[in-house]
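Now for a concrete sample entry.
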Amino acid sequence: MKKTINFYEFSRWFQQNRPDKFSRVGLHGLFDYLEEYEESTGESIEFDPIALCCEYSEYDNIAEFHLEYDHEDYPDIDSIMDYTQVIELGNGAFIIQQF
C-alpha cells in the first residue's frame, strides 16, 4: 500500500519531528530532487524521513561543510560533486548525500 505525499505533508513531518534538520529552502530542494529522481528513473521512493535525515545533510556554505570534511580533499562544490549528490539551494547553501 502506497500513499503519494505532497510538499505540505513532507515539510510538515520535518517541522514537527526534526525542525532543525533542514531549512524551508532545503526542504523544497530535497523534495524537488526526490520527485525528479522518481520521474527520471520511473522508480517510486518510499517516504522514510528518518532515512532521509541520516542520508542527507544541509550546509549554509562551504565553510560549514569544512567543519566536517577536509578542505584539501573538497575545496569547492565541484570537488564535492565528484564524490556525492549535491543539491544546490542558492546563496551558497547546499545539501549533500552523506558519504
Q: What stands out?
A: Residues 7-97 form one domain. The two ends are 31 Å apart (CA to CA). Strands lie at 56-59, 86-90, 93-97. The mean pLDDT is 96.
